[in-house]
Amino acid sequence: MEMLPLRKRIDDEMKTAMRNKESQRLGTIRLLISAIKQKEIDERITLDESQIFAVIDKMIKQRLDSIKHYETGERPDLIEIEKAEIEILKQYLPLPLSENEIDSLIKNAIKEVSPTSIKELGKVISHIKPQIQGRADIGKVSAKIKAILEA
To answer: In sequence order, which ranges of 20-98 are alpha helices (DSSP H)?
Structure first.
């Protein structure tokens, strides 16, 4: 089966959720489409897949943050809604990278960028970011790169 482009897949799944009257799934997909369109309007561009993954990552992080607040407010009902939305959003992300794949990408990025000091950490991260977007925690990858550059 051929993989549909991500944007078309999201639109198709929205229609399916409408037909099947899956209100929570439909609401989450609509929020995702809205966030994608907003970013496209704000930046006057059409997002590619890695940029859509960045939007999805941001939406997941927002929900994780909300869960923390709901835990302190003792709102298990809202926590469940946020967790369900995270699961729906994760379906649009590519498979996570293994530690070996991440290490290999870091090695290649360092070889290509040839940083001379820790000050060039940003250059290495911006080089590797499109390859790991939605597939690895950028914060953890950044920490690994920083450790290598400081060594």
So the answer is: 23-43, 49-72, 76-90
